[in-house]
Design goal:
Length: 254
Amino acid sequence: SIGDADEFFSIQSIAKVFTLTLAKQKFDENVWNRVGKEPSGTPFNSLVQLESNNGFPRNPFMNAGALVITDMINKNAGKTKMELIEFVRELSGNKQVSYDFEVADSEEKTGYRNRALANFLKSYNNLENEPDDVLDVYYHQSAIRMSCIDLSKAFIYLANGGYSTIAKKQILNSRQTKRVNSVMLIGGLYDAAGDFAYKVGLPGKSGVGGGIIAVIPGKLIITVWSPELNKTGNSTKGLKALELFTTYLGISVF
């Protein structure tokens, strides 16, 4: 590791991979009955595309899609939040991973667009739970605090056919793992996913906390963190670091 690899930060939208994994465990391919698996080409919190698609989000990494995924795994907000953080702790092998409640509270106070998305989804009958209950879990998942080292350990199953060497168990089967990686490749960095595939050539997922994870199938997970964001909400230096890493080492899925 290099730099502040053990520094905790808010992982934000990277958490959407954890919730998608839980949804795939419970519903497998039925997940795609309520959310798509196509690139968006629009900002992560866009309302326009959701309306034109009649409440059917383009992919699970758009905010609207992530709200649907959260709805799928949510039967009781308090219980779901506990199950989620325990799942992440198990995957990372670090019991210190936790929610940053100040961040969650801030997300709730400023989440006007997400509230609009949730109500929009509910109006199209694509949320089973009440919007506020879904948003409660959603704001907390965005506020998970962990380090680059924790994230690399937590997502190792995506590079290992679904088996976690940290949790010492199968998290997803190999087919499900391929599906999750595929959706990360086409939508993990929102409307910059194409540029990321072009320059980095790996499945990846970013968060506005400045973190990015990238999967090298069959080998490893690389995580970068640098808080300065570009206009698409992705880490400026993190993107460059990943581009240089894969270019100089000749590593990509292509």
